[in-house]
Structures are given as structure tokens and as C-alpha cells.
Amino acid sequence: MTRPSLTGLGRWIGRHLILFLGLLVLLYLFAPIFVVILMSFNAPKSKLSYTFDGFTWDNWQHPCRPSGLCDAVGVSLQIGLASTVVATGLGTLMAFAMVRRRFRGRSGTNLFIFLPMASPEIVLGSSLLALFVSAGFGGRLGFWTILIAHVMFCLSFVVVTVKARLTGMDSRLEQAAMDLYANEWQTFWRITFPLVFPGILAAALLSFSLSFDDFIITNLNAGTTVTFPMFVWGSAQRDIPPQINVIGTAMFLLSLVLVLGGELARRRRNARAR
Amino acid sequence: MSALTQLPAATAEKPQRQGRRFTAYLLLLPGGLWLLLFFVVPIVTLLAASLYDPDGSIEAGFSMTWSFHNYVDALADYARPFGRSLWYALLTTAFCLLLGYPLAYAIAFKAGRWKNFLLALVIAPFFTSFLIRTLSWKLLLSDNGFVVDALKAVRILGSDGRLLATTAAVVTGLTYNFLPFMILPLYASLEKIDHRLIEAGGDLFAGPVTTFRTVTLPLSMPGVVAGTLLTFIPAAGDYINAQLLGTPRQRMIGNDIQRLFAAGAYPTAAALSVTLMAAIVVLVLFYVRRAGTEDLV
To answer: What is the value of ipTM here, to two decimals?
Structure first.
């Protein structure tokens, strides 16, 4: 040992270099989250404050104080729920067709479904706007045009997610049910659906978060309607009320509870199965 | 984001039931119609709009020119932000690969029973609105923030240096925003590698570097290809990071497309949008052919 001062931590890093690098990258992913949480307790001195000026609970007690903020969150929630329901429904049907049926043009359909996921958002948004304008809807942009756009880009993600679950499923379970004289309907509701359900749930959660968070496509097709990301964008040009960070932190905590809850449920299920 | 983890895997399925094509078409109809009406038709409309006479307006309508002069004009005016977008997207993809690979590798091979937990941690920041997270980078990179102070202390940044409103800030933000799109496909393909193959590399007296270069990396190529596409494509079209973390000197083509559409200059905006799409398609086809992985979809 030329360097006797090598500490335990240093030795751990040396031995687990890749794990250490990975954890550093994870820290990079979380750095802005820490800032969001910290700033949700900020008591800014002036309207254009980007620094932490003092601690307060006030923002959490009055999240709706900045005018328009909670309205925008409400609009985003409505659009998010509606587009989740429609996209998950239509996408699940498509996933079933893709995995469980053989038909002409299957690989072409596959590519077709994949394309919206592989297009830049600015192209998706601007092409939809071009359609709405040329169809004479230019003056009526708002809730419905946003909803149409969101269902469109969520669909592909739903199909891919549900398809993955269906593909990984053992179809012999369904065959066994049929062998035991269950008709097609019973087989579907008692065997297939419960097995696919986690995939559908994951697809729905994904749709909701994609819809709730979308800015580029929404901004082009929203007219005067303001969603939550559009509110954040607008305030970034003027002043950023700390309440925005309250909403951001709440979203983060809520999703953490969902993810950890899902993981716990999975572990418990596995433990019971053993 | 489990959709992305599964992406490279979604090729191998075989339809288990033959016949009954009619049901298949019936199941595909509503969703397919939606995509046809609100994805295909808009793209065609966009193509048409890029050939309109730029002198029109929404109120008066646009007349069709059938000529490509919008493209010539738009490219003459916007070549620089265009090139910049592709350059930034390339840098972003490289950094995402550089940062994403160790993390994906660590989760796949070194995390043991913490695997799922770490994977959840990769996705978790995603659920806070990405605009809010990008705004926090503004704070992290600000002139008197600790990142700038630290970089100045180790002399990476000069004493008059700053990060915010520079290319570095925009690329940092882009890398940050698209990193999970790289990590998840990488993880999915690394996780599928049979560990015995890596051990075999060691048994055959290959060092860790040689084993990585000849065994692990080639086997993870589907993930690398999927990940690079999933970061490059959205990064090339993004304008949020350039707007919030840069100045007009860092603006990307998305900024211009958005601004032109908002101003009602549809023909020019449409021509730029189509050009962006075409450039991406050409680059992606070239890249996929070179990378040799055709079973992407």
C-alpha cells in the first residue's frame, strides 16, 4: 500500500467502480428534483427570484394562490383522464389484434403504430395544427383538439406496453381453460383479462403522465386553453411562483407512492406464490 | 415507461391463433382510424401546406403553388438553427450513451435485489413535470450556483465563466431530459444477456475491457440502437431546453417552427417541419443500416 490513507469508501469505489458511476448518474437524474422540493418551501423576496430566500410552509397551504394555476391543473387532469380512457381502450384492442391474430399486413401495421412514437413532437404538433387550420377549426382550438392530439400520441405507447405483456403471457393457460370447457367469453374474463390487467394499468399510467406532461404538441393545438405545462411555460417568461414547485413535488411524491406500492404488492404476491 | 424497456424485445412474438382475420380488422379499426385521421392525414396536410403560397393568411386562405420555393427560402434563412439542432441532438445522444451505459450496466449486473428499486428510481423523476425540472436546471447552472462555483474551483471554468445561456447548458438540459429514453432500452437488452457468456470471456483469459468490447457491447447493440434513436429523434425536435437554458444564439429549429406557426406563417413553418422530418428519416435509415439492426419495430 503506497497510500495508507485509502479509506473504506475509497476502497468500495475502487471495487465497485461501475456501480459508483451508475449512482453518480442517478444523482444527476435527481439533482433537479431536490431543487424542486427545496424551492417548494421558498419564500421569495421578489417576483423574479431564482434563489432560495427563506423557508415557509405558506406555498403548501395555499397552492392555488397564483391566479390560473389550479384551473390549468384542472384542465390537464380532465384531458389526462379522458385521453387515458380513450387511448387505453383503443390501444388495448389493437394490441390484442397484433398479438393474438394473424392477418394480412401485420408487420406493416406494426410499423404504422410505431411511427408516431418515432416522430419529433414538433412535427406531430405542427401537422395536426395544419390539419385543424385547413379544416376550418383554426378558431376553435381548445379542449377537443388537445384531446384528439393526446389520444393520438398515447395510442402507440399503449399498444407497445400491452403488447409486451401479452407476448410474455403463457397462452397455454388459456388453452387449458378451453380444455376445461370454458367458452371463449369465460376464458377471456377469468383468465386472459386478469393476466393482462397489469399491462393495461401500466399503459394507462403511462398515457396519463404523457398527456399531463405534454407541452410541445399541446401548445400548438391549444388555442386559448391553458394546461398545466403551458402555465409553467408562461410563468417562466415572467415570474415563477413557488406554488409551481409545490405541484411538481406533489406529483413526484404521488408517483413515488404508486411505484413503491406496486413494487410492494408485487413482492407480497411473489411471497404468497412461493 | 415500461413500454420503452420492452421495445427491443417486442419482435419475437408469434400469433398463436390462426384465422378469424375479420376479428383482427375489427379490433384494429377504431385505433387505426384515429391514427389515420390524426397522424397520417395531418402529415399529408403538412406536406400540402409546405407548398402553399407564403403570401396567404388564415383569414384569406392560402393558394397552392405546387412549387418547392418555400423549401429553398426556408433553408436559406434557417440553415444555421437547423444544423445546430442536429449537432446538439448528436451531442446529446453521445452524452446519454456515455452516462446511460454505466447506470444501465450497474442496474442489470451489479444491483442484485435492488434492481427493480433502482429502475423505479430512474423513472421516478419523470413524473415531475419536465418543464419544472428544466427550470430547476436554470437554478442549478446559474452564475452564483454551486455547480459553477465548483467548476471554477477545479479550474474547468474560468473565473469569468458561466454555464447558463451557453451551449453547455442546453446540451446538459437535453441530456438530462432524454437520458431515461437511453437507459431503459439499454437495460432491457443488457438484462437479457446470459451471464455465462461474460464468465466465458473471463475463462478464455480476456480482460474485463476485452470481454466488454467483444461480448457485452455487441450483445447490447439492439439496446444501443433503440436508445440512440429514442434520444436523437426527440432531441432534434426539442426547443424547450434551448429556450429556457440558452439564448437566441443557441436556438434550435423547433424554436423557429413554433414561432412561425404561432405567427401564422404556415407555409414556411410547414416546409421547415417537413425538412426536419425528412432529415431525421434519412439519418435514421442510414444509421440503422450501418448499425445492422433491422428488427427494431
So the answer is: 0.86
